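Risk register update: the risk that structure generation would not scale has been downgraded. Supporting records follow, first protein first.
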Amino acid sequence: MHPSIVDVKQVACGARHTMVLTAKGQVFAWGRADNGRLGYPATRECRVPAQVPLPPRCDPCVIACGNAHSFAACENGQIYAWGWNQAAQLGIGSDQQQVCSPLLVEELAGRPTVLVSCGRDFTIFACGR
């Protein structure tokens, strides 16, 4: 395991990638790098975890992985998505096929998220008030 990954709060696994959320609010990802699923620039499989570059005011509380897409929900009510978007599973309101770095899901901005669950080509959010 990467030396910066301590006090793991949550683990999420996709078809060919894995993410962890630490108690300090850091998100790390590794695995297959195609389609932007890792959230950082990579061109081939990454065997060593690297930190996902989330915006400074994002304090992640929930992470999720789908087949080739990923999410981080933040304490401030913002949700960030990245990865494969062929079936609009990122919820970004665009037909962009892939997103290679975290992108705000504007439709859900400001809604506290308690759960994000992903399948092969879909995502479900459970939001509070």
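Supporting record for the second protein:
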Amino acid sequence: MKLGAAGIVNIIESLIKNTSVLDLNLEGNEFGTRGAFIIGEYLRKTKTLQNLHIGNNLIDTLGIKKFAEGLRFNRTLVSLNLCRFELAYNFLKDEGAEYLSKIFRTNNSLESLNLSNFKKQNASFNLMELKHFLVN
């Protein structure tokens, strides 16, 4: 059963009150743009979440932008799994990829980033390797 946007809203509302959750896997729930907005807002507020998996959720460019804005303000997330975060699963376009790459250039808390099936990438990167890749 897929949670969809309404299910994500309920989960995130509960997580705002719960400060002990460190890992969150929302992969494959088809929550779309609205869910990405909610997660972006949560990322702005959370002081505890360390690992997030959000691949395969039908997120469009607007949703990616809002998610990236939340990620920009987050300083606790150390692992981000964007597995299957591509056009076929999340409607990622060049503009959405650019939003994310800007955040990856400035976010100093991320240590691990999984970009499996992310456009042409097919591996899990160490963030230092990715930063070098993005800068060059």
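Confidence is low (pLDDT under 50) at residues 119-130. On this basis the risk owner (M.S.) recommends closing the item.
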